[in-house]
Write a structure and sequence with these properties.
The protein is an alpha+beta fold. The chain has two domains: 96 residues, Hypothetical Oxidoreductase Yiak, Chain: A, domain 1; 193 residues, 2-Layer Sandwich (Ribosomal Protein S8, Chain: A, domain 1). Helices cover 42% and strands 17% of the residues. The protein has eleven helices and twelve strands. The strands form three sheets. The protein has a seven-stranded mixed beta sheet, sandwiched between helices. A hairpin with a 5-residue loop joins strand 8 and strand 9. Helix 1 packs across helix 2. The longest helix is centred in the first third of the chain and has 19 residues. The chain is globular and about 50 Å long.
């Protein structure tokens, strides 16, 4: 089933509004989910909608919550998400950070008490489009074990970095595990196997069974390098913002419990280094040289962007299961489903 991006955004936003979400918040959440879907990042796309609605029902997500400033001194701000939508809380934090960076050149904004953040690239790319360098990170529930163990110690702890360019932003978005927890959940729902080398069962043995992986742990990329990066993100997005970290982070299946993970964003105003848009021009020239020297190699984020542009033109292909779920949600929330 092929659906236009605009139509899909409207439907998702309407479902969220009928579940008690204010229009401005539902617009951001819907836009982020549909953009992830359009980019081919299905683990952070429409598959998340029902889980968000379930969290609203069990009380772990407050749909009309708006972040509040806890402290602000100089170029540093910390905020409280009030258990609201993670992507909206991150959106607010990013806008606060950009506003400060316009005056100071650099800013760091933290956020505690927010629900699942979603695709971080949605946030950092927004900042880069506005002309800022952005580095964002979020910690999550324990899912990844150290290279020589099988105890879940830290989350998949995503990191996203976006850099503005006159020829399209450079976006690097990654989790510190070889696969995301969302990918494992997606495999469970679709009854598919995981690739080898991505996960361990509860006894520390390699497994391709997603159910065993959910009860076991995920493998960090790059051994101790990836795990070490995950620790850094836990300390900065978690402890530095006043949030939980490591095994103290609430897990996704603890129904009714407010999430206690954290989010951190750093924005840099390039105009404080080189003026007149020179930085963006140099970034474009840098990657132009890259393509010249390595024409067969792709730049991180390039395939996602190509997929997004194709989706903008042709719409998003929903599989049968996605269409059935959306149809059921429209029925539950008194909306008309388009065939």
């Amino acid at each position: 089933m092929q659906v236009a991006i605009g139509q899909l955004k409207t439907s998702v936003s309407s479902i969220l509004k009928n579940a008690g979400t204010p229009e401005d918040i539902s617009t951001v959440v819907a836009d982020s989910l549909v953009k992830a879907e359009a980019m081919g990042v299905k683990t952070h796309g429409l598959i998340r909608l029902k889980s968000y609605l379930d969290s609203i029902k069990d009380g772990s997500l407050t749909p009309d919550a708006r972040p509040e400033i806890s402290s602000h001194k100089g170029s540093v701000m910390n905020m409280d998400g009030k258990s609201g939508f993670g992507i909206y809380s991150a959106y607010v934090a990013a806008n606060e950070s950009m506003q400060i960076s316009r005056e100071t050149g650099i800013s760091t904004v933290g956020m505690k008490n927010l629900h699942h953040v979603g695709m971080l690239e949605y946030i950092t790319d927004m900042c880069a489009t506005a002309g800022f360098v952005a580095i964002a990170m979020s910690n999550g529930h324990p899912a990844v074990s150290p290279p020589d163990g099988n105890t879940r110690m830290i989350g998949t702890n995503p990191l996203s970095i976006s850099i503005p360019s006159v020829d399209g932003n450079f976006n690097l978005d990654l989790a510190i595990s070889k696969t995301s927890f969302g990918s494992v959940r997606k495999s469970v729902l679709e009854s598919t196997k995981l690739d080898a080398g991505l996960a361990l069962d509860r006894n520390g043995n390699p497994t391709t069974d997603p159910l065993e992986a959910m009860n076991g742990s995920l493998v960090p990329f790059g051994g101790y390098k990836g795990f070490g990066l995950g620790l850094v993100i836990d300390l900065l997005a978690g402890l530095l913002t006043g949030s939980a970290a490591g095994t103290e982070v609430v897990t996704w299946n603890e129904l009714g419990r407010k999430w206690n993970n954290g989010f951190l964003i750093i924005t840099v105003n390039p105009e404080f280094f080189v003026q007149g848009g020179e930085f963006k021009s140099k970034v474009a020239a840098y990657f132009s040289k890259f393509r010249e020297l390595a024409p067969k190699s792709s730049i991180p984020g390039q395939k996602r962007q190509a997929k997004f542009l194709a989706s903008m033109k042709d719409g998003i292909q929903l599989d049968e299961n996605q269409a059935l779920i959306l149809k059921e949600l429209c029925k539950v929330y008194d909306l008309k489903f388009w065939e």
